[in-house]
Each structure stands twice: as structure tokens, then as C-alpha cells.
Amino acid sequence: MNVFMQLGWFFKERKKQYLIGILMLLVVAGLQLLPPRVIGYVVDEIRLGTLTGAGLGRWLLILAGAALAMYVLRYYWRIMIFGSSVLLGRRLRSELFAHFTKMSSSFYQQRRVGDLMAHATNDIRAVQQTAGHGVLTLVDSVTTGGAVIIAMAVTIDWKLTLIALLPMPLMAVLTSWYGKMLHERFRTAQEAFSDLNDKTQESIAGIKVIKTFGQEEEDIDDFRKLSADVVGKNVRVARVDALFDPTISLIVGLSFFLSIIFGARFILNGDMTLGDLVAFNAYLGLLVWPMLAFGFLFNIVERGRASYGRIRELLAVPPDIGDADGAADASPRGDLAFDILEFRFPEAEHPALRNVRFTLKKGETLGIVGRTGSGKTAILKLLLREFEGYDGAITYGGIPITGYRKERLLEAFGYVPQDHFLFSATVRENIAFTDVDAPFAKVREAARLAHIDEDILGFADGYDTVVGERGVSLSGGQKQRISIARALLMEPELLILDDSLSAVDARTEEAILAALKETRTEETTIITSHRMSAIQHAHQIIVMEDGTIAEKGTHEELMALGGIYHEMYRLQQLEALVEQGGDA
Amino acid sequence: MDAPEQQKLTGRDQWRVLKRLLRYLRPHKGAATVALILLGLTVLGSVLGPYLIKTFIDDYLTPREFPAQPLMLLAGAYLSILVLNAVFGYVQLLKFQEIALRIVRQIRIDAFTKVHRLGMRYFDKTPAGGTVSRVTNDTEAILEMFVDVLVGFLQSGFLIIGVYIAMFALDVQLALLSLLLLPLIFLIMWIYRKYSSEFYQDLRERLSQLNGKIAESLNGMGMIQVFRQEKRFREEFGEINDKHYEAGMRNIKLDGLLLRPAVDIVYALGLILLLSYFGITSFSEPVEIGVIYAFVTYIDRFFEPINQVMQRLSIFQQAIVAADRVFRLMDDPEMEPAQPEQGDARIAEGKIEFRDVSFSYDGKTDVLKQISFTANPGETVALVGHTGSGKSSIINLLMRFYEFERGEILIDGQPIRSYPKDELREKTGLVLQDPFLFYGDIESNIRLFDGSIGSGEVQAAAEFVQADPFVRSLPDGYGQKVTERGSTFSGGQRQLIAFARTMVKEPKILILDEATANIDTETEVAIQKGLERMRKGRTTIAIAHRLSTIQDADLILVLHQGEIVERGTHRELLSKGGLYHKMYRLQNGILEENEAR
């Protein structure tokens, strides 16, 4: 019940709706008492022969009036209470989503997307259930249950009420117990199902191996075993699940039996009439649902409590890189100076960067080469302020990058990542990512610069073709070029290409680089690459090795040096030759 | 969450799918009959109970006569019906669920079996997630339908019939009058189904959009943040969230208008009908109170199943759509290349011959053009060339992953198509570039599912390929757990396990797709030694990325754009000074002055 307290803020906010809804439930609980009572009176009047046409008409009118009123009230309390719970779901979901957008990369490194998804879906659903069905079952079981019992005791006979109710608590206890058992068994059944899911996934991923070894039949047998396990675990669920209905009818039947036996005695003693007995039985029928609800209540509330706890925990994680007090509300311009003594990723043993120093003048291009893991990407991550806590300083236009408001800093950067991520949207929307309202001409211009315009026009729907996870599949090179167009559309002060030309062929790469050189005379560019051709025309090249700068200079200087750069360059030339079939 | 496939099934399609689903009931005829009989008995019981009470009221309570024996009998009958009903009801519910579970298991097995009969072409064009979903999630939806909808329909149907029979037995006129309630209920059902199938579908789609947006945003959060689009995404999410909320509200309103509240109105109508009938009758003739009691109880019992069925109507629609998707997988025509099931063609020597083989994946561009070569028994033929040159396609054809139309592939002089599948799989061993490890332990990964292979043989194979030392150095040795596709092992270690897995079968023909992935220097030596031993005495077709590993091959084929551009031994090819020569120098880092300008 604690979770109702924790959700108090929401109930307070929707006080009106909840109060009206509960009030309506109360009225419905009262109105529900009418039909059985009316039946009782009519029966008695029939038996005594006192029923008149007008009397019958009056009773029927009351019944019809009550039914109509209940219909309206039942509709509106649903809107009030269930409607509020759906609203709570929406609230929590958007709060959580907003929170997700504020979390840093280390947050995402520590958690799996699947788990975060589960919080945003299952947990919110459970909390929503608590605020909807939870409230309903609580109110309903108390009000309807209470009202019916009072009506039975007051208008008919309190002794008979007590006797007939004897088996009822057993039902609440049993169903609540079944519920708990069911939950536990259901969890194991879910696990078996998820094993089956994993198995299927694995078989499809490893289909070639299975085919190679001719193990299809054996694999199918294994699947058969696992699916038998799923059946077995689910039968365990069914064994409990199938208990509900028979238990309820047994206990209700017992109640009826007791009420008839003892009711008959009371009638003989003259304590009540036959009509009372019929009415009493109808009341008993009304009690079934509140008793059941009481059993469910504990399970709903228990799940809601656990889920709300997880959501609150998630929302309590603070975003860790914020803006410093008095951070400059300006976009960085000018020279970039990078001076890092040492940096290591959180919880990493070895430093990712050591003694990395360079200065990049405005309008110049910096090329960074080096093997995977040599520190190229770490340099970019620090620039983008994805990580802080390094020993040294990075200044842009003379001000440390931490001295800018992060948003203003990033708006100057056009970043093209290694793993090009496109969203499930049209090509146009993907390119105009930072400026949704960018005129079409501007979008095309960016695409043309990235040499993707022609490709896009070749797609079925041109710029309106949907790409990304749920759209058409593009080649790696096409994705890279769309990512480049996305960054170019910003006309960024600093363009960062993080090995983002790896999947385009040599000629296209050259054309893109030439286009960049032509249009970006005033702005700064950083290119990291495995391929030397991408950076050989840069004003300045640094060769990274083991997190530190091994060589530094222009292409000519480095070639003359005859070191790592020189060797890498020549090997790649030969490789290019082989790629072309060796006939060059 | 997979993408919502927008498809509308016509009424006839739905009927066809349902019929096909029901066909799965056939093997469970016996159990289903038992369950149906039990269901009939429970309905009978729940109809008899009120009848007994009616008898008590009318025959004993009203006339105030209480003979001990008949009353004891009556009470005894009532209580036994109560208990028997609970027992029958339980067994019946359980039986139906069991049948449903077994049916769904059969559908799953059928779908999974089909997956194994599909050709590689299918897997090239279908995302794995979709196929997994067909086998597991969609079949789960079918289960829900069997358990909740079909069984619910049956129960309600039986109960409605039972209640009406009882009512007819008590009072024909009133029972006829009560029949008037049925069209009213069917009308509500019809209207509800009409709107709910639309509204509920809409809600499902909104939910799937909502989840899709969350998943995509979480995956692309880095991009969103670096381009400062948090606010826009929050707004976009807000919009979807609002739409989902509205869809939710629409469903609540629809349910409120047409579900329980509406059915309760019909219930009230039923009561009014009863009371006016009895009331009016009582003006002219006496009415038995017990009959009123029984009718009131019957009307009450009658409406509970109707409420339940209505709530489940929307599940039905979902399940039919899911079942249709499963059946379409089962009917997919993209089968694997056919081989004779039986036959006595045996591979004895292991001679392989390609004659003028051309091949295309898409029917447009040829990835192999007139490939001809022969690998004599015990020889090694090496395939070299750049990415996309056609090396892997040669192996794909030789492994019968894809069907080819032009040219001929012969093994021991016989067409490859004439060998039974089992013979081919047994005699040819393929080591894939990315050795896929299964969940389990090392021993199970070497043995795979072949129960005839003992631990000794597993170890011998591992020793043979030089994998034994590394496996022994693991804390649990051969019992070491392999999780998530073997990600805890290095590329080289996985390769060694894959070697052992192949060699334990002692194939006649060995097909190697050498790993390009970064192999640590520690395993490198072991791998080279293992390879050398494996090739000895076996016809070997090897894709080599490192030319150093195939210098002793009997024949080296240099491929470029689907054609064999050079062929010969290492020595011959080097002296030619062509493409192979350049590749060799590249890999050995030999730069000659004339090329390093």
C-alpha cells in the first residue's frame, strides 16, 4: 500500500478526477444494491398476492432508472480513474525519456538498451496499473463489498450474513495465494520462453555452421526439447491458473448452500421472508467480484511498488557533465589548442592518451592517423566533451572548452561518427537533422557536397525515401555520405570526420575532400582515418601510436622523415593497386 | 519490437487462417473430446445447482414440509454437484490449456523445421529478428488465442445453451421471451468488434511506434546529443506519447460504452423482463417462487461469460494476423538446394572439379564467371583475391548453400547434386571465417549434437589441431562455459575450437575460410601448425588471406571480379610478376623503389 503514498503527488494533482471517480464508484455500489432488494420485494408481494400492476410498474421503473444511472456512472468513473492512470503513464514516460536525453555516455556504457527499454515499457505499465486498476480494486472491494454486507446485515438478517460470509475470506486468501504462486511460476515460464527465443536466435545466426555439419535434425530435436520445456513450465502455470474459477464457484456455492439451509431455518422461525432469501442470494452474487478484487489488489500493488521503485531509481541518476557556473554563452571561434598530459577512460587501467599536444589554426585541416586503439577517437571524444576529468587543457579561441555552455560548444561542431547512425526517417530529415526547417535547396547542397545527391535521386522516393532501421537498407558508403551531408548542413565551425570515409571508394573520397577544401576555406576541419589518402593534403598530420603522438608534420615532412607514416603510406599505395586488380 | 506490418486480412483470409489453425487440433482429438465432455458436465452442474435450490424452495420450503431423507438427499446432491463441478471444471480448464500449449508447440516446431529447410537466399534477404519473431512471439499470440479466446468461446457457448435448456425446462414462454436478449447481445458484440478491431489495432500500432522511438533514441542517443537535438526528440516523443495517450483514452471510452456497462444494461433488461413476466402472471395464476429464484440465478450466470468473451474479441484479431505471418513463413518457397534423400553415391577419393561454373546471387550480375579448376585427391587448392573477387562464392556453391544453374561441379567424377545430403555433410568439413560458437561448453561445441563422439575423440581432435594446450589452461578445461557466441574467447581461440569441431568428423574434403580477424600472436603459431596437419591427406580448398599460409599449395587461383586471372604454384606466380606478386609483396611489407615513388 506504500506505493499509493509514493504516488500521492499524482493523486493530489488529479484530486478532482479521483474524488469524482471514487464518488461515482460509491454511488454505483449503492445502486447495485437495488436490484436484489427489488427482486426480494416483488417475490414477497407475489407470494402474498399483494402485487398490483402499479406496484410492479413502480418497481420496474426503479430498476430501469438504476440501470441507466449505473451505465452513465460506470462510463464516467472509467474516464476519471482509468483516464488518469493513462495520463500517469504518459507523464512518467515523457519524464523518463527527457531524463534519458540528459544522460552522459558513461550512463549508457553501464546499462543495456534492453534494460532501459524494459523500464520505459513494462515498469511504467505496472505503475499505470496501480494507479488505475489498483485504485479501482481497492475502492471497489471496500465500497461494494462493504455496502453489500451492510445491506445484507441491515435489511435482511445479520446472523445469516455472518454465516453466509464464513467461506468468503477463504476466497480472498486463496486467490491472493494463487496469484503469488502464479506470478512465480509465470516468471519461470517466461524464462523458458526466453531460452527458446535465444535458441531460435542462435540457430538462425549460426545457420551456416548447422548446415555445414548437417546438424539440422539434431538442432530441431534440441528445439523440440526446449519447446517441450516451455510446455511443461506453462502447464505448471495452467495448474494454478485453472484453480481460480473452480475455487470461486466452489466457495460461492458453499455460501449459497449455507444461506439456503440457514435461511430456511430463519424463515421457519419467522425471522425473514422467502423474498428476503431470494434477495439475499442475489446479494451474495454481488459479493464475488469485490472478494476477487481484494485478492488481486495485493498482487497489483506489489508489482507497482517494485516497478515504481526502479523508475524512481533511474530518474534519480544525475546527469554528470553540466555547465560550469558562468560558462560562456558564445559559440567558439578561433584556434584550437589541445594539451593533454594524461587521460584515461573511467575504470580503464591504461591511459588512453599521454602527452598529446597540438595547435590547430582557424581554417586549417588536421589529419590524425594511427591504428585502432591508438587514441584517435579518444581525442575526438574529449573535444566533444563526452568525457572530462583529464590532466591538461583543451582551449578553443583561447577559452577552455569547459568554459563554454555545452550546447553552444557543440553547435559549432559538425561530427561525423565512425558508426554512422541514421534514424528511421526520410533521407531529407536525416540530412536536415540539426535544422528541420532547412530549405530543400540547402539540403541538396549538403548532399551534393557529400557526393550522395545522385544516389539519393536514384532511390525509389528520392529525398523522401525512408532509411534507418525500418527503412530501405543502404550500403555502408551511402550511410557514411549521408552522415557527412548531415554534418555539412550545419556549416560547422569545426568539422570532425571520424574515419568516416572508410567505406567510400577512392575516387569519391577524393571528390568529397576536394569539395570540402573548396567550400570550407574559413573553417577548421579534423579528419581521422586509416587511409592516408584522406589526410595527406591536411595542413598538419599527427601519427598516433599507443595514445601518444609518434610523428607530426605535413605529408612532405613526414615522408621525408621515413618513419611510420612513410611506411604506412607506401603499403597503402600498393594495396590500392591490388584492389584495382594490379593492372595500374 | 519488430516493425508493425501493415496488412489488412479480408474476412475470407481470416477464415482460411483459422481453419488452418484448427487443423492442428486433429492429433488431440481424444483429449479435446474428454475436455469437451467435462465442459458439458460442468455446464450441466452449474445449471442443475439452481434447479435443486428451486426444488427445495417450491417443494419443501414453501409448503413447509421437511422430510429428513429427501432433504438430506437434496443437500447431498447439491454439495456433490458443487464439489464434482469444481473438480471437473479444474480438469477441463487444465486439459484445454494443455492442448493449446501442445498445438502451439507443434506450430513452433513446424516453423523452426521450416527455417532449417530454407536456403541461404532467404537469410540474405530476411532480417534474423523477423524470423525469430515468427517462431516465438507470433506463436505466443496464437497460444493466447487458443487459451483465452477459443476456450472462452466454447465455455460461453456451452453455458448459454445449457442455461437456455434449463430455462425451457422450467418455463417455455419465459425462455422464449429471454431469447429476445440474444440479438441485443450480438448487436453489442458486433458493434464493439467493429470499432475495437480498429481502435485496438491503432493502440497497438501507437505503442509499437512509442517503443520504436524509445529504442531508436536510446541507440542513437550519442548522435542526438552531439547534434543537440534533445529538445526536438523530446517534442517528437511527446507527440507520439500524446497520440498513444489519445488512443488509450479512445479505447477506455469504447470499453466503457460497450463492454461491461453495456452488458449490465442488458442484464437489467433481463431482470425487468423476468419480474414483469412473473408479476403479470401472478395476477392470474400462482407463481412458484423457486422458479423465480432459478431464473434470476440463470440470468446472472448467463452474463459473466459474455463479458469475458467480449473483452477477448480484440485478441482474436491480433492472433489471426500473427498466425498468418507464421503460415507465410511456413509457405516460403525459398528452399535450400535439393539433394537426394537416399542413394548410395559415396565420396571415396575426394576429387573436386569445377567446370565452367558461372553464378549470380541476384540474377543480374555474375559474381563467378566460367570458373574451371580441378583439385585432385589430397591436393590443396588455394583461392586468393581481394574482397568481392568471388572466393567465398566458390565455397558457397561447393557447400550447396546456393543453387547454381550454369556449369557443373563434380566430386569423384559424379555431379555434386547426385550425392545425398548426409554424405556431402559428412565428407566435407568447412571452417568458417567467423567461427560461430554455440551456448554450452567447449566440449559440446566440438562435438555439436553428435552423441556418438566421445570425450576421448573430442580431446584427440583438439590435440590434433593444437587446441588442447589452450583449452587445458582454462579453469574448467573442456567443460569451460561458452556464452554469447563465444565472446569471451579471442578470435584465434574460437578458430582453434572450430578446427577441432571439423576434424573430429574426419572429413575427406576440407574447406577453409581463413580468419581475417585480428588473431593474437599466441594462437597464431598454433593455428598454423593445426592447419598444416589438417590438410595432410585431404583434398583442401582454402581461402587464404595470408599468402604465407598457402605457399605449399598445389594450385593457387588468383581471383579478380569473379574470374580466375592467374593460376599456378606459389613459385610460378611469383615469377610471373603479376597480381599475386604484388599481393605477396604487400603482405610482406616489401617495397621496391620503383613503386614507392
TrEMBL record, chain A:
Keywords: ATP-binding, Membrane, Nucleotide-binding, Transmembrane, Transmembrane helix. The keyword Membrane applies. The chain crosses the membrane at residues 56-77, 135-154, 160-178, 248-268, 280-301. It is a multi-pass membrane protein. Residues 336-571 form the ABC transporter domain. InterPro entries: AAA+_ATPase, ABC1_TM_dom, ABC1_TM_sf, ABC_transporter-like_ATP-bd, ABC_transporter-like_CS, P-loop_NTPase, Type_1_exporter. Residues 19-303 form the ABC transmembrane type-1 domain. It is found in: Cell membrane. The keyword Metal-binding does not apply. It comes from the Bacteria. PANTHER family: ATP-BINDING CASSETTE SUB-FAMILY B MEMBER 10, MITOCHONDRIAL, ATP-DEPENDENT PERMEASE MDL1, MITOCHONDRIAL. This is ABC transporter transmembrane domain-containing protein.
Automatic annotation (TrEMBL), chain B:
SMART domains: AAA. InterPro entries: AAA+_ATPase, ABC1_TM_dom, ABC1_TM_sf, ABC_transporter-like_ATP-bd, ABC_transporter-like_CS, P-loop_NTPase, Type_1_exporter. One of its GO terms (molecular function) is ATP binding. Residues 34-318 form the ABC transmembrane type-1 domain. PANTHER family: ATP-BINDING CASSETTE SUB-FAMILY B MEMBER 10, MITOCHONDRIAL (PTHR43394:SF1), ATP-DEPENDENT PERMEASE MDL1, MITOCHONDRIAL (PTHR43394). SUPFAM superfamilies: ABC transporter transmembrane region (SSF90123), P-loop containing nucleoside triphosphate hydrolases (SSF52540). Residues 352-586 form the ABC transporter domain. Keywords: ATP-binding, Membrane, Nucleotide-binding, Transmembrane, Transmembrane helix. Its main location: membrane. Pfam families: ABC_membrane (PF00664), ABC_tran (PF00005). Coiled coil: none annotated. It is found in: Cell membrane. It is a multi-pass membrane protein. The chain crosses the membrane at residues 30-53, 73-93, 146-166, 172-192, 257-280. It comes from the Bacteria. This is ABC transporter ATP-binding protein.
